[in-house]
Amino acid sequence: MTPKAYIFDVFGTIVDWRTSVAREVETAFSTKESDVDPLQFADTWRGQYDPAMARVRSGGRGYVALDVLHRENLDETLRLLDLDDTLDVNERDDLNRAWEKLDPWADSVSGLLAIKQKGIVAPCSNGSIALMTRLARYGGLPWDCILGAEIAQNYKPEPAVYFACCKALQLDPADVMMIAAHNSDLEAARACGLQTAFVPRCREHGPDQTIDLAPSSDWDRVVDDLSELAD
Amino acid sequence: MTPKAYIFDVFGTIVDWRTSVAREVETAFSTKESDVDPLQFADTWRGQYDPAMARVRSGGRGYVALDVLHRENLDETLRLLDLDDTLDVNERDDLNRAWEKLDPWADSVSGLLAIKQKGIVAPCSNGSIALMTRLARYGGLPWDCILGAEIAQNYKPEPAVYFACCKALQLDPADVMMIAAHNSDLEAARACGLQTAFVPRCREHGPDQTIDLAPSSDWDRVVDDLSELAD
Q1: pLDDT digits over B109-163, tens only?
Q2: Residue A80 CB neighbours (<10 A)
Q3: pLDDT by residue (tens digit) across A83-132?
Q4: Which residue in B120, B129, B150 is closest to A133 by CB distance?
Q5: For B13, what's the count of Cα atoms within 13 Å in the CB-facing half-sphere?
Q6: What is the DSSP letter of B11?
Q7: Distance of residue B119 Cα from the nearest chain A Cα, in angstroms
Q8: Which pLDDT score, from 0 to 100, does residue B1 have?
Q9: pTM flag (> 0.95)
Q10: How far is B58 from chain A (nearest CA, A)?
Q11: Omega within 30 of 0 (cis) for the link into A157
Q12: Following DSSP, what letter does each residue of B98-111 receive, concatenated?
């Protein structure tokens, strides 16, 4: 059954957050004397992504946009890496916008344009509407609309997020396909009744990546890149 | 102060709902024996738009998507025009999708593309996310994201809708410009602190239109069309 809409994980699936954030970190510290490993910085920052969202998912904290969590996690990253004295508040606010400047993978834009000919394309990301909008403008991502965590006021992999995307499109979950480079995301989407497609991004975490190198289940589609999914 | 985002009324300002709906009405009744005036039908259908939303705005009814209100109003229109026996449920459901097939005014797409070079462009419409998404695909409207009534769970001109759009973009109202062909929409936006621009659409209601032919206040910008706004 051909999907009527295609919703995508973004961080890792559509954009290369790791090298992009590292590039912005390098710029932020270019005039500083501190010795900073930009890739380690990016990994440490991203390492606090899931724990920060877990507090919202558990109900221990009301929904706050991912931009706010990223900003808090940046403070924590600077503490962890003994860099607390290096960046002032304005510099931190600027660096937090690194998440709005993430480069798409080489096949992302052309793949999305091709899939858009088949049906609605939208992000189903934990990023906020503001973040996804600015990221789309930065990378030329041709979304039809912005869906995801903010319209659900919760974070993936909570079922509420996948259901909110389908509801916003006024489609049954069976008519919607979730595309991700992360098996756990697809497990959650499948449990909600969505179709699933896996696209491996074996360099998301760098050359030594050990997770999500291959599909962990019989997803409806397993493709090498987004162009293949369009076909 | 140059706006960082431009949000637009859609029905009337970006698209010509009246002749487009009339065209779909004509198609729906092409195989029927009933004598139907398509433009009168469109006007009668649209005539129930505001009263239907008023029940939500007043709190008398929880938020329901405009698609649902349109569908209810279609039933009422058929009753009012003595056409209750003409269309079955499936035909009514099909005709309700007329609102997803509204032609943009001649300057809308090129104007939006030009304004998009200056800042974020998004609808601030009473249409649902699903409706705005499908309308954008139909007419090639190059929105960066879909904002409006659904993210506020309320209808314009309630302040909640304008504030929800600014909040979703993480912008102060003063950094956002509302563009509309309806003075009342701009009055509400200005009261929320947004910048305002008026673009007259003197044929929205046909050749005998009497309202919104000219600006009723000193809006920040008054332009002949969207291309002029981009300049």
Answers
A1: 999 999 999 999 999 999 999 999 999 999 999 999 999 999 999 999 999 999 9
A2: 15
A3: 999 999 999 999 999 999 999 999 999 999 999 999 999 999 999 999 99
A4: B120
A5: 25
A6: B
A7: 9
A8: 87
A9: yes
A10: 23
A11: yes
A12: GGG-PEEPTTHHHH
Contacts of B65 in chain A (CB under 8 A): 170
Tokens of residue A157, six digits = 């992999």
Question: Sheet holding A221-222: strands in order across?
Answer: A147-148, A120-125, A5-8, A176-180, A195-198, A221-222
Do the bridges between strand A120-125 and strand A5-8 make them parallel or antiparallel, or are there none, so unpaired? parallel
Residue given tokens 């509400």 in the structure block: B188
3-class secondary structure, A214: coil
Interface contacts A/B by beta carbons within 8 Å = 57
End-to-end CA distance of chain A: 15
What's the helix, strand, coil split of chain A in %, to 5? Answer: 45, 10, 40
Which single residue is written with the structure tokens 């929880």? B62
Burial class (CB in 10 A: 0-12, 13-18, 19+), B63: middle
B87 is written with which tokens? 């269309």
Dig out the tokens for B213 from the structure. 């032919």
Structure tokens at A182: 């992360």
Closest CA to B182 of B207, B147, B161, B209: B209
Q: What separation in angstroms does the CA of A131 have from each of A63, A163, B145, B169? A: 15, 21, 11, 8
Please name the residue that has the structure tokens 């480069």. Answer: A103
> How far is residue A58's CA from residue A70's CA, in Å, rounded to a whole number?
18
Assigned token pair, B141: 């409207």
Of B67, B168, B170, the CB nearest to A170: B67
Pairwise CA distance, residues B215 & B231, whole Å: 19
The one-letter amino acid at B164: A
Q: How far is A144 from chain B (nearest CA, A)?
A: 6
Query: Is A137 in contact with B120 (Cβ distance < 8 A)?
Result: yes
Question: Is a pLDDT exceeding 90 seen at residue A212?
Answer: yes
Of the candidates B134, B146, B150, which has its C-beta nearest A146's C-beta? B146
